[in-house]
Specification:
alpha/beta, Rossmann fold, 2 domains, six-stranded parallel beta sheet, 14 helices, 17 strands
Amino acid sequence: MSITSITELPVSGRRLVVRADLNVPMEGGRVTDATRITRFATGMRPLLDGGAALVVLSHFGRPKGGDMAFSLRHLRDDLSRALGRPVRFASLDEAEAEADDLRPGQVLLVENIRFEPGEERNDMALAARLARLGDIYVNDAFSCAHRAHASTAGIARLMPAAAGPLMCEEIAALTRALEVPKRPSVAIVGGAKVSSKIAVLKHLVTRLDHVIVGGGMANTFLYAEGAPMGRSLHEADQLGTVDEIRALAARHGCTLHLPADVVVAREFRAGAESMVVPADACPADAMILDAGPQAVDSFARVLEGARTILWNGPLGAFEMAPFDRGTVALAKVAADLTRAGLTVSVAGGGDTVAALNAAGVAGHFTYVSTAGGAFLEWLEGRALPGIAALMRDDQAA
């Protein structure tokens, strides 16, 4: 059982039904971040140059019914510019006739697949309609691979199926960072709540050598050690979970790292007056909003000894200064080590990508995943339906 890459198959004269993730942010009818479009187009251009025709499927937002504010028509011009060629557009009802008319090198963008009520329940009748649009199915949307939908799982059972270039990149990067990491290996796991990343933490401590815990999650770990929290975000009901994670880490030889000092403030707002205190000395009327400089220095030393760095989640409230300093400082350390060829660095998750962009270092990491939920489920060690559907013996030839 293996996954075939579309780059391994002859595509000249073939019509590829490609599941993309073109779910990009828009404001005032304009795309504000075209990263997903440009990365998708980078992988598709060689296929088009090689004589393939593309029928592109994607979702956009969470539409109720056929709300045209979520029409993929809004993205056609951006996709056309990224691909460097015209892009046709059709509703699903029109798509079969339009697809039959495609010539090598041409592209058809089909209307938002989530306009179809059968998409999210993996309706096989819908999957069959999609399968009639081409010769080979290509899943290039790792960020949707955790969804068992008609366009990500059902269709792959009905026709020859392969992984797209971006999908292959994502799988290779995450496998390198988690399944077969160069050691020592380190994960930085941040975010608001331990409860949202229990499975992630439990899986990582069995795989890697070090796990640095940041954000509100670190507060819960500190609280379990008896540190006062003041008005800080923490989960008093997760102390048993913290004990389980600690015991699991000890059993597998993984070292957990918590901040030795923290940045606290009495107001949660940009530019609020703040101070640095030991991690066990948060005032009763204050809240922990970032890792302190001593903590960042300690974390940096862990990274400096690492051959693999996996990052998911910020160290603090990075969205507002001055509580972005810890995340930015550590991100620059990881980027510098990567540029020097001393480590492989892989990052993913919406907040993480935003934090690395804010620090100006996303382009210096080995790989930055565009995925959110799929990235987290991979970190949990779960099988992703969109990938499992590609793992067959009867691939296209």
